[in-house]
Amino acid sequence: MSNSVRVVNELLVDLFNNILTIEKEALKTGKFNDLSLTEMHVIEAVGCTLKTMTDIADNLGVTVGTVTTSINRLLEKGYVTRNRSEEDRRFVEIQLTDKGKLAFRVHQAFHEEMVKYMIEGLDEKDNDVLIASLQRLSNFFKDKYHINHK
User: What pLDDT score does 90 carry?
Assistant: First the structure.
């Protein structure tokens, strides 16, 4: 393995593990300590707009059944509401409560702080290279593993 491949691999693995560890620890010790990381990612997938169960499942790349389990827990904890669509009663619409919106914004702020730190001080050319590299990696995952969400 070339040195560049080894270094990039180590960095990606380290970053992925660090982000998960930090998110888990922040949830465990923070204001939203009743949420699991999975539940936080469901909240993130719902966002601040009305979503159907299928929208959420597609966004996360999981089944509607998997989302239903998380939504039921989030409903009990007061983070989401669930209602039948007025236009088509077959569809269940999910929306964040005020508590859910606050959790969403706090989680979003964590990601924003991380990204701002990463791009701080980059000139336009380096920023373009970073974005192109991340886009290539994202496309690789989507193409190789048939990931269609996001």
Answer: 84
